[in-house]
Specification:
This protein is mainly alpha-helical. It has 14 helices and no strands. The longest helix is centred in the N-terminal third of the chain and has 34 residues. The protein is flat, with a radius of gyration of 30 Å.
Length: 338
């Protein structure tokens, strides 16, 4: 009996095996009604809304920024980049842009520092003995700090405008009562040196509470074992906050910085309520306020659209700068992405 006959008897294949055809990839999923309806409702509809109400108006603004449209007629002329050249030589807009940039630098930085400080005290700033906890009556401080955020921004600005009133304001009354006679009839919003800092203070006062709660929620997600291990190693509250808590919630800090920067670059409600005229020597005038004035008071919608495009570009650059700084300072995962 030959080897082939023996192999046939044992059911063993002799000789070269047939190669299997390589797979052509995963089979395509059949389009069912449930799949198509899900994609349309949860992807197609939001995407359509975003394109119609966000992208398309922005495209229109870019187009109108290159025209001399007045906003009240159907006639306009395309003038190219003439409005942008005019912006560069417009001292009022350049002053407004400078004020907006100052607010975008100071307000997010100060707000985040204060909010992080309060959040750390409320969550891990308590006794160094026993379980890690916040300071006493932390729930009360949490509610009190959040209270300004539930008040509309326009109401906050009007309240503080009355408090800063030169003749009947509460602040001047308190300072004068304490013996500071130089603050009698002091115009906080009427002086170049104090108008912009006071405006920043009001914005910060209204935003601290919300971002404090944001950071409290983030710190609650830090494992207690990590903080306890740091305490055993001798790390104090400040060291634990700087070296452990903040690095672990840096994504939340980055998000807060971007949102605060966007709010600060706008700041229309606050500045319009505190100083509708733009303050002394335009010291509190911001880009959004000048845009509104140019469009609806002067009837130059094309020129105002150019201001809006510049504001949008600065906002995008601010967000990109925050991402780059976060990435450069170590805010990246194991894959090297920010």
């Amino acid at each position: 009996m030959t080897a082939t006959d023996a192999a046939d008897a044992l059911g063993v294949q002799v000789g070269p095996r047939r190669r299997r055809m390589p797979s052509r990839g995963p089979r395509r999923r059949k389009l069912s009604f449930d799949y198509v309806s899900f994609m349309l409702v949860f992807l197609g509809l939001p995407l359509a809304i975003f394109l119609i109400f966000v992208i398309w108006p922005f495209i229109q603004a870019v187009f109108y920024s290159m025209t001399d449209w007045t906003g009240f007629t159907a006639e306009f002329n395309v003038i190219g980049l003439g409005n942008f050249e005019k912006l560069i030589n417009d001292p009022i807009f350049m002053r407004a842009m400078g004020n907006s940039i100052k607010i975008a630098i100071v307000v997010p930085l100060v707000t985040i520092v204060i909010a992080l400080t309060f959040a750390t005290l409320i969550t891990v700033g308590g006794s160094s003995r026993g379980q890690i906890r916040g300071i006493r009556n932390s729930s009360f401080y949490r509610v009190v700090s959040f209270f300004p955020y539930v008040i509309p921004a326009i109401v906050i600005a009007l309240i503080w405008r009355q408090m800063f009133d030169p003749s009947a304001g509460l602040l001047n009354g308190i300072l004068t009562g304490l013996g500071f006679e130089q603050f009698e009839s002091y115009a906080w919003l009427g002086k170049v040196g104090t108008a912009l800092p006071v405006t920043m203070f009001v914005i910060i006062w209204g935003a601290v509470g919300f971002y404090m709660l944001l950071f409290i929620a983030a710190i609650k997600g830090v494992p207690a074992e990590t903080l306890e291990a740091a305490r055993i190693d001798g790390a104090g509250r400040f060291r634990s906050a700087v070296s452990i808590v903040i690095p672990l919630i840096r994504d939340n800090v980055q998000t807060a910085f971007i949102y605060l920067g966007i709010m600060a670059l706008d700041a229309f409600v606050f500045v319009q309520a505190l100083n509708p005229s733009g303050g002394p020597d335009n010291s509190t005038l911001v880009m959004s306020q000048q845009l509104f004035r140019t469009a609806f008071t002067q009837g130059q919608f094309g020129y105002a659209s150019a201001m809006g495009v510049v504001l949008a570009i600065i906002t995008l650059l601010f967000a990109a700068l925050v991402f780059v700084i976060n990435w450069a300072t170590g805010g990246r995962d194991e894959g090297g992405r920010a």
